[in-house]
Design a protein that fits this description.
51% strand, 7-stranded antiparallel β-sheet, 4-stranded antiparallel β-sheet, Jelly Rolls, mainly beta, 2 helices
Length: 187
C-alpha cells in the first residue's frame, strides 16, 4: 500500500525530534529529506523581528503546500522609476552573510498568489519573492541546484536596515512547539 505525501509528512512531524532541524529567521523550521528536498514548517512566533523577507534563491524550486496556505508575492525590478529597496548579495546558510556593497533598486509587485493545500508553485533562482504563510503551514520543496548554490539576494525598504534570516540549529523545544502547533491546526 502506497503512503500519501501528507501521511509521510505527518509521520515526520509526529516524530520530529528524530530529525535534524534548522530554524530560519523567516519563522521557518526546516529539515532535509535527501539532497533535493526540504520540509518547511512555518511559525511566525519564531521569526526574527524586522527580518528582511524579500529574496531570491541560489536554486530553482518547486514547492507543494502539504497543509495550510501560503501567500507568495513576486516582484520585478523596474528601471528609471527611482528606488524603493536596497539589494544585498548574501552567502546563504549557516555562517553566511553579506557579500559586497548593497545597491538601490526599484521593486514592484508583479504577481500575488495564494497557494493552498495540495497545490504547487514553481520559481526560478533569480525570481524575487516573499512568502507569507499562515502559521503551521507545511511545504515540501524540491530544489534544483544551479552553478552557484551558495549565493542569493535579499531586499529591504529604503531607510531601513537589513536584518538577517540566517538559519541555525533548532532546539528540541522549538522543534516540539512548531511541529505540535502544525499538527493541531492542520492534521
Amino acid at each position: 500500500m502506497a503512503i500519501s505525501t501528507r501521511h509521510f509528512v505527518q509521520y515526520i512531524l509526529e516524530n520530529a525530534n528524530a530529525f535534524k532541524w534548522t530554524i530560519q529567521g523567516f519563522g521557518m523550521l526546516r529539515t532535509y529529506i535527501g539532497k533535493e528536498h526540504r520540509l518547511h514548517v512555518w511559525d511566525s512566533r519564531f521569526s526574527v523581528p524586522s527580518v528582511s523577507v524579500i529574496h531570491t534563491h541560489p536554486w530553482d524550486f518547486a514547492s507543494q503546500v502539504i497543509a495550510g496556505r501560503l501567500h507568495n508575492i513576486r516582484y520585478e525590478r523596474l528601471m528609471g522609476q527611482g528606488n524603493t529597496h536596497m539589494e544585498q548579495t548574501i552567502k546563504c546558510g549557516e555562517g553566511g552573510g553579506p557579500c559586497g556593497t548593497p545597491k538601490p533598486e526599484y521593486l514592484a509587485v508583479s504577481c500575488a498568489e495564494v497557494i493552498t493545500e495540495g497545490q504547487w508553485y514553481v520559481q526560478t533562482a533569480n525570481e524575487i519573492h516573499e512568502s507569507r504563510p499562515e502559521d503551521g503551514t507545511v511545504t515540501l520543496v524540491r530544489r534544483v541546484v544551479k552553478s552557484d548554490p551558495d549565493h542569493a539576494s535579499v531586499f529591504w525598504p529604503l531607510g531601513q536596515q537589513w536584518v538577517s534570516a540566517e538559519p541555525r540549529l533548532a532546539t528540541a523545544q522549538e522543534i516540539t512547539e512548531i511541529t505540535t502547533a502544525s499538527l493541531i491546526k492542520w492534521f
